[in-house]
Design goal:
By secondary structure, this protein is of the alpha+beta class. Helix content is 41%, strand content 16%. It has a 4-stranded antiparallel beta sheet. Bound molecules: 2'-deoxyadenosine-5'-diphosphate and magnesium ion (MG). Keywords: ATP-binding, Kinase, Nucleotide-binding, Transferase. Major role in the synthesis of nucleoside triphosphates other than ATP. The ATP gamma phosphate is transferred to the NDP beta phosphate via a ping-pong mechanism, using a phosphorylated active-site intermediate.
C-alpha cells in the first residue's frame, strides 16, 4: 500500500493545529504508520529541502523549519500521495481552496503549516530520511469498511 510523508511545520505546532490536521487524515480513512514530534537542525532541514537549494527563499525556508518542533508522520492508503496533497492544498495559501488545510489555516506561503510529499518516489526518500528506524507494522481493522 502507498505511503506518504506528512510534516506539520513549526507554525502548525505552535498554533495548536496538530489534532485538527491528524483528524483530517484519520477521518479520510488513511492509516497512521509513523508519528513523532522533533526539532531538526539546519543540516537535516537542508537535506529535506535539497531540491530547493538554488531557490531565493531556501535560507528563509530552512530557518522556518528549524525554528521549533515539527510533527513528522507517515500515512498509508490508496493514492495517499496525491490525495494527501489535495487535502493539504496549493503551496501558496492565497491559492489554496477553502476546505484544504492551507486554505483553511494559512495566509502566507512562508507559513503554510504543513508539508506533504509530491510523488511516490520523493515520499520513499523522505520516509527514509525522517524515519530511519522504520515505521509501525500494523493494519487497521477498519480496512474492509473503507476499501471495497
Ligand atoms: P510544497 O510544500 O507545496 O511541496 P515546494 O516543494 O515547491 O511546495 O516548496 C517547499 C516550501 O517552500 C513551500 O511549502 C513553501 C516554500 N516556498 C515555495 N515556494 C516559495 C516562494 N515562491 N516563496 C517563498 N516560499 C516558498
Ligand atoms: Mg514540495
Amino acid at each position: 500500500m502507498e505511503q506518504t510523508f506528512i510534516m506539520i511545520k513549526p507554525d502548525g505546532v505552535q498554533r495548536g493545529l496538530v489534532g485538527e490536521i491528524i483528524g483530517r487524515f484519520e477521518k479520510k480513512g488513511f492509516t497512521l504508520k509513523g508519528l513523532k514530534l522533533l526539532t531538526v537542525d539546519q543540516a537535516f532541514a537542508e537535506k529535506h529541502y535539497a531540491d530547493l537549494s538554488a531557490k531565493p527563499f531556501f535560507n528563509g525556508l530552512v530557518e522556518y523549519i528549524i525554528s521549533g518542533p515539527v510533527v513528522a508522520m507517515v500515512w498509508e492508503g490508496k493514492n495517499v500521495v496525491t490525495t494527501g496533497r489535495k487535502i493539504i492544498g496549493a503551496t501558496n495559501p492565497a491559492e489554496s481552496a477553502p476546505g484544504t488545510i492551507r486554505g483553511d489555516f494559512a495566509i502566507d506561503i512562508g507559513r503554510n503549516v504543513i508539508h506533504g510529499s509530491d510523488a511516490v518516489e520523493s515520499a520513499r526518500k523522505e520516509i527514509g530520511l525522517w524515519f530511519p528506524e522504520g515505521v509501525a507494522n500494523w493494519s487497521s481493522s477498519l480496512h474492509p469498511w473503507i476499501y471495497e
